[in-house]
Amino acid sequence: MIGTLAVLTVAVMAAATHTDTTVAVKPGTRLELSNFGGSIAVTTWSRNAVRVMAEHSSRIEIQIENSGPSLVIKGVHWRGVPTTVDYQITVPRWMGLELSGVNTDVSVEGSGGEVYIETVRGLFAWAKKTGRIANNPAVDFEYPRLPRRLPGA
Fold first, then answer.
1. Which tens digits make up the pLDDT trace of 117-135?
2. Phi, psi of 63, deg, nearest 5
3. How far apart are CA 73 and CA 87, in angstroms?
4. Which of 2, 73, 86, 127 is 20 to 30 A from 102 (CA-CA)?
């Protein structure tokens, strides 16, 4: 009985939490987002604002720092351990993006700004192919109508 109660307590403490917030940005601001695990899905709109929706553990806080030329988004675990977050981000069409992760799948649709994507073990889909891509040979690339795998993978 006590063991069952302890398991239920742990399950409730790690329950999923939803974050949904919108932040105004000035033209020229760049989005920086690094995610250890999970996913990053970016779409665009015509507003000068960034909407951040995230699914994460209740032990993770989504922090948004809007200072200078960058809007920095990060998930911070209360114990400082790497986090898993599923992000859905809506940005202005003009916004530059710097997206990175370890076990993170990344997708970008409709971006008109410079896009930099780096993932160690993740899949990514990118509708507009201008910008820089840093990758590991094990990364899968999915382009619309042109799926391929990097040589040596």
1. 888 887 777 665 555 555 5
2. -105, 135
3. 10
4. 127
Task: Report the distance separating Cα 42 and Cα 11, nearest Å.
Answer: 30
AA letter at 136: N
For the segment 71-130, what is each residue's pLDDT rounded down to a tens digit? 999 999 989 888 999 999 999 999 999 999 999 999 999 888 888 888 888 777 766 555
- What is the average pLDDT value for the chain, to the nearest integer? 79
Residue of 102, 74, 95 lying closest to 29 (CA atoms): 95
Query: 125: which 2 tokens?
Result: 């889909």
Contact between residue 28 and residue 91 where contact means Cβ atoms under 8 Å apart: no
Tokens of 126: 């990118």
Residue 126 CA: distances (Å) to CA of 4, 20, 38, 59, 75: 45, 24, 17, 31, 23
